Amino acid sequence: MPNLMLTNWCNYKCPYCFGIDRMSPKVEAHAMSDDTFLGILDWLDRTNYRAPIHLMGGEPTLHPKFEWFVSTLIERGFPITIFSNLATDKAPEYADKLSILPIKWVVNVNNPKNWNNTQRRNIESALSVLGKNAAITFNIMPDGSDDYWAIDLIRRFNLSKTIKVGFILPTVTNSNYSLTDDEYLTVAEKTVKLAQECDRFGITLQYECGVPTCAFTPEQLGILWKCGSRLNSGCCSRLDITPHGEVIYCLPLATVGQRMYNEFANYTEAKRWFEGRFLPYRKLGRTINCATCNLMTPDKCHGACLAKNLIGAKNVKI
Ligand code: SF4
Ligand code: SF4
Q1: From the CA of 166, which ligand is nearest?
Q2: Is 34 exposed, middle or buried (0-12, 13-18, 19+ CB in 10 A)?
Q3: Would 105 disulfide with which of 134, 221, 270, 309, CB 3.0-4.6 Å?
Q4: In this predicted structure, what is the pLDDT of residue 248?
Q5: Residues with CB under 6 A from ligand 1
């Protein structure tokens, strides 16, 4: 089921943002309209698919009609997951109102030492009511600090005991801050340390797409497995739909190809079309070792992030 971008602007300006090519100020700010939203729901209904709809942005709680989107999805029987940084002024109010509903919140957090006072107040207030309905997600950064603050946050607010960690995803235009090849190794090592510490508190790691398995040594992969945080990543996107109704494969590849949702008969056809168009480029791989690697499948590694592998490629046409 797709990720619906309710807005293309955000209260944060993270240098690693992989949505940068589709976000204000690079493109004009736009909020998804009622008609576009209802049209997309009718389109999704054609396959009677009932996996969770992901509401995201930008930052979805900045949309002036955020509550209407949620109540419409509930009325129509769609399960919901909300991706938010919870740092907006409206986030505590929405969290409070929606905390009694079976809605999952995936909260993108930066290291709390970088929060300002307003962000701290909003995030902590929202987390305190969401509790187990909220799971945190963040990028492991290639710096010298540890990531144990995430464990403190989970224990303090009784959050879901899973953390979704990511290795910063690059845009195909190479316009955001992303990792060098050497930094992948640093981040892999930090991930293992975090998994070991999490294991002491019954917390496990899950992984965003685009994490290359070969950034870890066999020993490190074994440690993750033993901690219950076995690495499982791939390059196989739920499609994203922008506030204008354009379908893209994922934000890092947003500049490579797009089609309006109603150019496809249904979601399944859209997904098949994108996978087919990108298939020839999969051969690029991340390294030549991908050619013989048994993890070259969509739900395994698949050469890690295709957007990274396409950086600098000429004449990409999908
Ligand atoms: S190209 Fe693949 S790994 Fe990279 S962001 Fe898109 S889906 Fe994820
Ligand atoms: S598919 Fe490629 S990038 Fe992924 S683990 Fe195998 S060799 Fe590494």
Answers
A1: 1
A2: exposed
A3: 134
A4: 97
A5: 169, 209-210, 235, 237, 250, 252-253, 305-307
Give the Å distance between the CA of 129 and the centre of ligand 1.
32
303 touches ligand 2 (CB under 6 Å): yes
Rounded mean pLDDT, 247-258: 95
> Which protein residue's CA is at the shortest distance from atom 5 of ligand 1?
252
- Tracing tokens 């009622």 back to the chain, one arrives at 34
Q: Across the chain, what does the average pLDDT equal?
A: 95
pLDDT of residue 318: 85
Mutate which of 16, 250, 277, 281 for ligand 1? The one with the most ligand atoms within 8 Å of its CB, which is 250
Nearest CA to ligand 2 atom 3: 303
Q: What confidence tens digit (pLDDT) does each residue in 100-150 have?
A: 999 999 999 999 999 999 999 999 999 999 999 999 999 999 998 999 999
Q: Angle at which helices 66-75 and 34-45 pack, to 10 degrees?
A: 20
Q: How far apart are CA 215 and CA 201, in angstroms?
A: 26
Quick one: CA torsion of 223, 229, 230, 233, rounded to 10 degrees? -130
Domain boundaries 3-310, CATH class: alpha beta
pTM over 0.70: yes
- Locate the domains of the chain by residue range: 3-310
